[in-house]
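wait is this the right file?? whatever heres the structure
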């Protein structure tokens, strides 16, 4: 687990325990409401959030692929989720390597509305990012 995931897990546990403590201190219908809300928070934290992250990451990958097809017709590339290589990386970032430019890696992400943008690049040793054929951070 990455440090960000561990911190998120601890925050989830803290808020669930806080709500349960508040439930123990209250009476009647408020106790039931607080217990139900802590159960719902636990379901969201450990059940639904991983599914949502996987769904969004696959949707972003499709958006990035479509964007690249429109922007660079006739080229081929390989798209890989950043968190598959490094567990602490952003799962919504897609690393793209173009076959016409081996060794260079470009990072893309997309908004909920499908707006794709390049958010970074990793050039080969001895080169600057702006020297890449597909570098577009300052060109947008």
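ok assuming it is, sequence goes like this
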């Amino acid at each position: 687990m990455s440090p960000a995931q561990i911190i998120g897990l601890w925050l989830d546990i803290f808020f669930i325990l806080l709500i349960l403590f508040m439930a123990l201190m209250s009476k009647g219908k408020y106790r039931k409401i607080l217990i139900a809300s802590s159960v719902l928070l636990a379901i969201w934290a450990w059940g639904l959030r991983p599914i949502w992250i996987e769904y969004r990451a696959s949707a972003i990958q499709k958006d990035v692929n479509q964007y690249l097809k429109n922007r660079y017709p006739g080229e081929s590339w390989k798209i890989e989720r950043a968190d598959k290589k490094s567990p602490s990386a952003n799962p919504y970032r897609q690393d793209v390597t173009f076959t016409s430019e081996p060794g260079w890696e470009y990072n893309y992400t997309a908004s909920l509305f499908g707006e794709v943008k390049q958010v970074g690049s990793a050039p080969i040793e001895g080169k600057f990012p702006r020297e890449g054929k597909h570098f577009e951070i300052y060109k947008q």
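The chain has a mean pLDDT of 88. so i think its the right one actually
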